[in-house]
Amino acid sequence: MLVIDRLGYKRWVFPPYQFYLFNVHEGLATWFGESPPLYHLYVSMPIMFTSMLPFVLHGVYIAVARGHATAQPAIVAVAAIFIFSLVPHMEYRFLYPLLPIGFMYAAVSIKSLVVTHPCSMDASKKSDTPKNASVAEAKVNGRRLWSVRNIVAYLLVTNIPASLYLNLVHQRGVVDVMTYLRSEAQKQLVEEIGFLMPCHSTPYYSHLHQPIPMWFLSCEPPLEKTALTTHYCEADDFELDPAGFMHRIFANSKDQNAPDLDVVNGSYQPGQTRRKPSHLVMYACMTKRIHEELAALGYSECARFFNTHFSGDARRKGDVVVYRLVV
């Protein structure tokens, strides 16, 4: 891996050290926002394990307090959570590698809950006759703390509805719009696409599968701590003054011939003037602010896709709307 990194970066790098240097020592991750110190405990863990979290915690308790399972994976997980909590910017996806460890302890917990009560086991051992044996067996079954059927039903009821909603309904517009644009591109109706949305809002070429020039509002972090307060963020610039931003970057776009893909990827820098693309994509909450500017620039709405019933980010509210250049 060191050799591969050397070939890619053109210098020797050690990724764990670079992670520490960028995120902890320099604190450059704060460019994307800061989180409370206990974010991973009361946000990341509940989101990742949902209704299985009580079983995970119970499994860890059994492993540590009763010695029914090894506690080493739990120690590794706690250490990882502590280290990631040192980074001011936190996201629950950073802890995805801990999911297998949590599921293992959930299995330990469930196994311990479905065994019979020790007192009932003693009662069954004292039974000598067949009649007494059947009575003891009934007591054992009756005093079972949990049943596999009940646990499975609980997990299914608490997870399947949420999974279906989150996978089939919630934020589906950002994917549906790429399906639409791919279809339009296959019909040769798309020349260039611009995404006036918070950066990385939609899939990109992984869904388009067409050599169509595309660009989105950039939000690259600075590479030096001294530039944290002065570094230019195109996405923030657009959010603060969307109308002025559009007039500025499209001010000198007289040549409307579709640019080459390499031209877009190589020369379109944050905040620079560029050609008006044939299609613009944005959230409905933004269209209310710049509908007059869109009309003045020659754009009209051509498609709209439901995205979500709720959003924690005010910039991502409403449908996903596509505008086409008509003049």
Structure notes:
It comes from Coemansia furcata. This is Glycosylphosphatidylinositol anchor biosynthesis. The chain is α/β, with parallel strands linked by helices and 327 residues long. The protein has 3 domains: 33-113; 118-168, no CATH class; 173-325, no CATH class. 51% of the residues lie in helices and 7% in strands. It has 15 helices and 5 strands. It has helices at 2-9, 15-25, 39-49, 53-66, 72-85, 99-113, 118-125, 130-142, 148-168, 173-186, 205-208, 234-240, 242-249, 261-267, 284-296; strands at residues 193-195, 214-216, 279-283, 299-305, 320-325. A 5-stranded mixed sheet has the order 2-1-3-5-4. Helix 4 crosses helix 6 (99-113), helix 7 (118-125) packs antiparallel against helix 8 and helix 13 crosses helix 15 (284-296). The longest helix has 21 residues, at 148-168. It is globular and about 75 Å long. Residues 119-129 and 133-142 have low confidence and may be disordered.
What is this entry, summarized?
The protein has 327 residues and is an alpha/beta fold. 51% of the residues lie in helices and 7% in strands.
Describe the protein's topology.
Layout: H1 2-9, H2 15-25, H3 39-49, H4 53-66, H5 72-85, H6 99-113, H7 118-125, H8 130-142, H9 148-168, H10 173-186, E1 193-195, H11 205-208, E2 214-216, H12 234-240, H13 242-249, H14 261-267, E3 279-283, H15 284-296, E4 299-305, E5 320-325
Parallel strand pairs: 1-2, 1-3
Antiparallel strand pairs: 3-5, 4-5
Helix pairs in contact: 4-6, 7-8, 12-13, 13-15
